[in-house]
Amino acid sequence: MFALGIDPGLSRCGYGAVRSNGAELRCVAFGHLTTPVDAPLASRLGVLLADLEDLLDELRPEVVVVERVLFQVNARTAMSVGQASGLALASAARRGIEVAQYSPNEVKQAVAGYGSADKLAVATMVATLLGLASPPTPADRADALALAVTHLAGAALRAAEASLR
Q: pLDDT, tens digit, for every residue of 77-119?
């Protein structure tokens, strides 16, 4: 299975592509997309949409995994994260790509074994699980890879559950 994790953001949107072959996980690509902070909101959303569509067309994932936006202290940040998340979800859906969402705590639990793990613990475990030389930085890259790993790690369990039905 080939999963693309998206850590949504308007200023910086992290992505991480991971392929699984049984229990083996392999990092295919990771990085982040940016928009010009001084541009109007509609222009920034247009840039991000085009970049997300290009990324999906280039990588052709089987599933897009997006961080579920639950709560942000800063309402302005929450709005921009929500808008970026919506673009990622809609872009995948338009291409007929399966979409999954996980909360930050679900990802931390799956990757680091602790739902309140800090960013460094998640990044360190992502590097370990994917055999990377060092933890990915900035954090949105590690978070995007962690989203993909979370989904792939649960794929075998979901398949087993489906076979029981």
A: 788 899 999 999 999 999 999 999 999 999 999 999 998 899 9
Of 53, 98, 140, 161, which one is the catalytic site residue? Answer: 140
140 as an active site residue: the answer is: yes
Q: Which of 67, 118, 143, 161 is catalytic?
A: 67
Q: Dump pLDDT digits (tens) for 14-46.
A: 999 999 998 899 999 999 999 999 999 999 999
CB count in 10 Å sphere of residue 38: 7
Residue 67 annotated among the catalytic residues of the structure: yes
Q: Which of 7, 51, 53, 58 is catalytic?
A: 7
Is 7 assigned a catalytic role? Answer: yes
Q: Top-level CATH class of 2-164? A: alpha beta
Domain boundaries, the chain: 2-164
Q: Exposed, middle or buried, 143 (CB in 10 Å: 0-12/13-18/19+)?
A: buried
Please give the distance of CA 153 from its chain centroid, rounded to a whole number. Answer: 14
